[in-house]
Specification:
about 350 residues, alpha/beta, Nitrilase/N-carbamoyl-D-aminoacid amidohydrolase, 7-stranded mixed beta sheet, 15 strands, globular, C-N_Hydrolase, C-N_Hydrolase_sf
Length: about 350
């Protein structure tokens, strides 16, 4: 599968300017190649890609809330998907207008208005024909989201894609995908145990071979440290993301099929797309600016049965590796691209645990 993410540094509240910046970067392409010639099957953009993220209140973000089907993000996604002939996933701040308020709209401490309108941090998914396929709403809210958004539903995390195979256009390959937005991969409100692994277990239980995560992930690095990294990834952030998928390294994968159309192999893999943003946004009321970690990446966790483990029944019977096809720098803007049929750039093996671990 050919997967692209667009990492860039949106300016808070500059929707038109951010769309122009995204278009410019897509036209620029990667390594001298235009994105059209790279023929991606999926393009993923960051969380709240065109509005920016660090709004301090409902009143601040209200001018940028969009209806699901008619807002500037939907229009851009539809036009871009048709032009690139690929599926597009892009984050946006959603408003859902309702006739009247309900008691449920005030659950979980959300910030919906008394008019009955509901607001969500959402991810729109559009197909090659410009049709809206899916709309995922962020399930686990970060404290910034809690000032204006409602929690989404876990049931919306999943969608089954149809992909035409390049070697046989008449054949469609159904791929179950699990969607997440940034904080979704963390423990709920940072209150449940770290090792509950809610999101990773959802991936395993749903038997999804494809995971798409749209992000506005912050970094603890200061401005000088980010500048020093330049085009190098924030490896502390990258390692933390991988750690949040630890169950994929320890439990046997049970999904059928493969994102690349292989239904016969004994090896299993789950592709994980981390689509983050870069740059910084001003803090509210004298607070420090919000700085973002960049480091967008396309990786896979793979399990291949060990020759000595006939009838392998757990991940300990498999050779487990982490493959990485591409990873962006922390402060870099541009395309992260992977062809998961090609050899990865990086391969990480699992070291055996010692008795003291």
């Amino acid at each position: 599968m050919k997967i692209a993410t667009l990492q860039f540094a949106p300016r808070l509240g500059d929707v038109e300017g951010n769309i122009r910046r995204a278009d410019d970067l897509l036209i620029r392409g990667k390594d001298g190649l235009r994105l059209e010639s790279m023929r991606p099957e999926v393009l993923v953009l960051p969380e709240l890609a065109f509005s920016g993220y660090n709004f301090p209140s409902l009143e601040a973000i209200k001018p940028f809330l969009e209806p699901q089907r008619t807002g500037p993000t939907a229009k851009w996604a539809q036009e871009t998907a048709k032009r690139l002939k690929c599926k597009v996933c892009v984050g946006y701040p959603e408003i859902e207008s309702t006739a009247s308020s309900s008691s449920s709209s005030l659950e979980h401490g959300d910030s919906n208005s008394s008019s009955g309108d509901k607001y969500f941090n959402s991810l729109l998914v559009v197909d090659e024909n410009g049709s809206i396929l899916h709309n995922y709403r962020k399930r686990f809210l970060y404290y910034t989201d809690e000032t204006w958004a409602s929690e989404g539903e876990a049931e919306r995390s999943f969608y089954t894609f149809n992909f035409d195979r390049e070697n046989n256009p008449s054949e469609q390959n159904k791929i179950q995908a699990t969607f997440g937005i940034c904080m979704d991969i963390n423990p709920y409100k940072f209150e449940v145990p770290f090792t509950d692994w809610e999101f990773a277990n959802r991936v395993i239980d749903s038997r999804s071979p494809l995971v798409i995560i749209s992000m506005a992930w912050l970094t603890l690095l200061d401005k000088e440290e980010l500048a020093a990294l330049s085009d190098q990834p924030d490896m502390d952030t990258f390692q933390y993301w991988i750690k949040r998928f630890w169950p994929l390294l320890e439990k046997k994968m049970e999904h059928d099929g493969d994102v690349d159309g292989d239904t016969t192999g004994s090896a299993k893999k789950v592709i994980i797309v981390f689509a983050n943003r870069a740059g910084e946004e001003p803090g509210a009321e004298g607070k420090d600016p919000a700085r973002y970690a960049g480091t967008s990446a396309v990786v896979a966790v793979t399990q291949k049965p060990n020759p000595s483990s006939a009838g392998a029944s757990s991940a300990s019977d498999f050779d487990v590796k982490i493959l990485c096809w591409d990873i962006m720098g922390a402060a870099e803007e541009g395309l992260c691209f992977a062809d998961t049929k090609a050899d990865p750039k990086l391969v990480f093996g699992m070291a055996p645990r010692s008795d003291s671990d």
